[in-house]
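Reply to dn_fold:

You asked what the input looked like. This is it:
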Amino acid sequence: MARDKSSSNGNGANLGFEAKLWLTADKLRNNMDAAEYKHVVLGLIFLKYISDSFEEMHAKLASGKGDFKGADSEDQDEYLAQNVFWVPPAARWSYLQNSAKQPTIGKVVDDAMVALERDNPRLKGVLPKDYARPGLDKTRLGELIDVIGTIGLGDKENRSKDILGRVYEYFLTMFASAEGKNGGQFYTPNCVVGLLVGMLAPYKGRIYDPCCGSGGMFVQSEKFVEAHGGRVGDISIYGQESNATTRRLAIMNLAIRGIEADFGPEQADTFRRDLHKDLKAQFVLANPPFNDSDWHRADNDVRWKYGVPPKGNANFAWVQHFIHHLAPDGLAGFVLANGSMSSNQSGEGEIRKAIVEADLVDCMVALPGQLFYSTQIPVCLWFLTKNKHDGKRRDRRKETLFIDARKMGTLIDRVHRELTESDLAKIVSTYHAWREDKGAGKYQDVAGFCKSSTTTEIAAHGHVLTPGRYVGAEEVEDDGEPFEEKMNRLVAELNSQFAESAKLEKAIKANLGGLGYGG
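and this is what came back:
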């Protein structure tokens, strides 16, 4: 999420750098709206990353040392073998930087993007190529190139994909904030993604997101694997996105970190054309559009195993799509509007009942409001699984964990809230303790926060999945003051406040009377 941290990370780079860079870049925006400027900036950051990675490999090949003895630094195949994009001379950052003050800089950048796509099939049709358009101030474009040219300067470690990846991610956050509702369509807040990834713990297997936006779920999944000592190659990524522009953002977002992914051949609506029809994934992570009424439904769709979803709301179309693509040992975690937990309109209650009775609901988490840029309404997380008794964990058949996290989070500005690291740790550890606990007493119900409930209990509540129904009220700590004494003290305080109020009222009337307004 967007916040300025002054501390340093592991590679010594100041984490406030992204915020300072954003402020500088944003000053150059002039009259462009955020949606348009986004592609100008992110395209250049991507170009800088591609060029830096190329130059690093070019230096190794040119040195001719060790594994690179006898290598040709201008041989494209050498770069392909190292999973590094080939950058032709006209697309190298040094060439752009030297041309930054020229009035033709827009065409220079466009030509660089065209050359990159020509020589790297993976990037075909992905990069922005309208920097020469009349509405883009070329002087400011040159200044922006100078600003982005500062990313990665300094020690060799800071030229790595990590710092450019962080800047790219930070800018995605800030553009989402600047664009408001429209920005939220391609961006899921980091803390929400982090919560989903932390609970699913995708160490190994296929990861799928059929409405992947700018690819944040995938980036966080890779970070999770690396942070826990796993091998990034142990996971395979599959995504789909209906918006062509957002799909390009996702491809760039992953490419800037060297992450391979299958996004299908083109953009496509998941309900009209499922690009990964035969995929069965170990993990499904998604943030589909909330309460979408403008979606395509085929009544005989094989995915509607638990009931035909209403045409006016796609929530349970998405839920059943996720279930359809889950492997037998799979686990799905996704964001939905709160109404999905309790709505009985247009047959939604019956679909939810069927899913509960099929014992697919592993955990429900109610989140606080103001987490998203696209909506201020509170949302919830669903966690579904097809196997609650895999022999590796506790037998959870006919059980569901409810977590009420509505009181968590910290306001980072007037309208946006963020779940803190301690909030995330509390929710994630509670879920894993519940799943793993085999009589060791690691998990316990906490009034007002979490409750493990049976399918029978859920049925008694009409198959409503709102955590607040199950976790109860938070226990109030006994202060040890006897009831009679407390009541006498409180009544005395109330009488004192009444007396003070009467005095204040009398003084106000006297002042008004002195001004000729008294009655």
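Confidence is low (pLDDT under 50) at residues 1-15, 154-159.
Hope that clears it up.
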